[in-house]
Design brief:
The structure is a homodimer of 374-residue chains. Chain A has 374 residues and is an alpha/beta fold. The first copy, chain A, is built from 14 helices and 16 strands.
């Protein structure tokens, strides 16, 4: 398989520095993927994303399937042309969203039937039609349809999700037309070491172009996440890209890189941005707090983005207090820029063999805790 | 007075082509001023405004007085630095807003006391403190505090508003520190020819750097507006800039230019943009309409803005139907760009002595009616 060729260029401690070659260009890893669920990274244009040094964007099969639908996107020339993003795109398979619907879906061995959260209409995902949909979008990386369980879950439940996820991964490979779209598998298994190992082993045997770790960052403790991510990453082939789904705080990104993971996605920076939560190298803060209404410093004095080199905290605080849409836009832009810059600096540190020092310096500089906004 | 030096460079029919020289640079007229009520043109950055060929921005004394307040803006280095807009700024005096409060304000000869729409706190505007406030913001053009009446109104009511507006204009001139901020007067008088004439004559006698026509575009018919604007404009000195407040549809702008007016402001293009109403050279349309969900043409095929050269109607329709904030942002940008481009073309037509043909060609191309969104 030549899809999604990955080269491991350097290592430093557990951290990896790589290059992932996709149909729409290379991605330097570690890389953060801003989330453009509905074919838009909320509030930002493709130009903004490029300016913020975004390399690859994530979109969601579930949402695009329901609206505007694959037919329109194909007619528009594919997802890249539809949203006018020329860089790589990875689409999630919709597994996570469908299994979040709880009362609205019915699982069987062949697939999953669900009702739309938009209009209640009935739809069905199978491993095959989800791959076909993503290939029709023309994305660079498609994810297999996986079976997610809500934690806490009984061991038999988690084991069953692993069994089906493996079976569906095999069917996904068979369904894959080996187009320019690469297909990544998703390791499940909850917080259970043995099930994670089983899931990883079965998927690795199928020789996918890349592997994601799913089912984490869903409410478990940071320690649980780190332990499972680290153990699972170690089970994955060194020569393939590793993707931890749903991670996007500064602290979690550093931890995940330390676990040997290469790619990450999360709505965190844009959701925080919309809600007035500023991410900085020294921690997060709520821009609406009274202290910032007269603060003439930039959001993050160490950041060289358009927002930080142009506007004050007082101006952003004014925008948010006035419910002006420019506030969410500017803070989303800054937060995405910040994570992309963090990844850039992480890559440089790994190349320089200085990962541990970089990681500790950043972690030491962080004050307070991230919010529960993921 | 050397403030706001105005040169009349060409005439074609009733239309005027001029240059207004303000502290932060020249404004080529006819010019449309996008409205940045709360120190932000909703959804757009200063960079966007420059890219959309915006020459001058309007902000509102009433809103900025209440939030974030003059003290903070002065501390931030003035309104230009606070919102990071380097071009000219004109601020409305707050008269229109205060008199719209109806139950929340008390008028006396000295000024007007009102309660904030935000928190009910009590404030007082006088001709003097409104000029001082705008000078403290460091804006290029300050408007005098005027007395607006809601139409329909009795003749004595309108006459009284003219009397007070004249008296307050004189006090505004006295209060003006002759800083780099120019001060424009506002002609009132409703739809009454004699009162308009009285108001204009009294204000022209005071030799202001510029004159606005207030009290129009407030619900009267298009014919009434045109008749009053045309008659009032003819009463104003040819060598001073003329500003018609509250006008921002393609049709009204062309009419107003035809009346010999040079400057205009309106929330129309940005409010329409937020609400999914696209302005084009061939009329307006609601982007949410079913027809556009599969329309792969640009919003306006004759427009060379970023939005029209990048995205399809189908993509914008998708954004609006998905309640994605990128939709309002993109359509606001396009609508502002469109009006600025219309003014550019109007200026060229006047320079070429071809105003009437240009006006008629644009008016003939317009289909349907603008919305009631002003």
């Amino acid at each position: 398989m030549t899809h999604a060729r990955f080269t491991l260029d350097a290592k430093s401690g557990g951290a990896r520095r790589g290059s992932l070659h996709l149909d729409h260009g290379p991605v330097q890893t570690p890389a953060f993927m801003p989330v453009g669920t509905a074919a838009t990274v909320k509030g930002l244009t493709p130009r903004d994303l490029v300016e913020a040094h975004t390399q690859i964007v994530l979109a969601n099969t579930y949402h695009l399937w329901l609206r505007p639908g694959g037919e329109l996107i194909a007619k528009a020339g594919g997802l890249h042309r539809f949203m006018h993003w020329d860089g790589p795109i990875l689409t999630d398979s919709g597994g996570f969203q469908v299994f979040s619907l709880q009362e609205r879906r019915t699982l069987d061995d062949d697939g999953v039937t669900f009702r739309s959260h938009l209009d209640g209409s009935t739809h069905r995902f199978t491993p095959e039609n989800v791959i076909a949909f993503q290939e029709a979008l023309g994305v660079d990386v498609a994810m297999v349809l996986d079976v997610c369980v809500k934690l806490p879950a009984s061991r038999p439940e988690v084991a069953e999700s692993v069994r089906l996820t493996t079976a569906w991964a095999r069917r996904s490979l068979d369904a894959w037309s080996a187009s320019s779209t690469a297909v990544f598998a998703i390791v499940q298994g909850g917080l259970d070491d043995e099930l994670r190992e089983r899931s990883a082993r079965e998927l690795v045997d199928m020789n996918f172009p890349g592997y994601a770790i799913g089912g984490l960052s869903v409410g478990e403790s940071r320690e649980e996440m780190e332990r499972t991510a680290r153990r699972t990453a170690a089970l994955l082939p060194a020569e393939k890209p590793r993707y931890l789904m749903g991670v996007g705080t500064v602290r979690d990104l550093l931890t995940a890189i330390d676990c040997g993971i290469d790619m990450f996605d999360c709505v965190y920076p844009t959701r925080c941005g919309r809600n007035g939560r500023a991410m900085t190298r020294s921690g997060e803060f709520a821009i609406r707090n009274a202290a910032y209404t007269t603060d003439l410093e930039p959001v993050d004095a160490t950041c060289d983005c358009y927002v930080c080199t142009t506007f004050t905290r007082a101006y952003l605080a004014h925008l948010f207090r006035s419910n002006e849409m420019l506030g969410p836009r500017l803070l989303s832009y800054h937060n995405v820029y910040l994570l992309n810059a963090l990844m850039r600096d992480a890559r440089a540190a790994i190349e320089a063999g200085a990962w541990a020092g970089f990681r500790d310096a950043v972690l030491t500089g962080l004050r307070g805790e991230p919010s529960d906004e993921t």
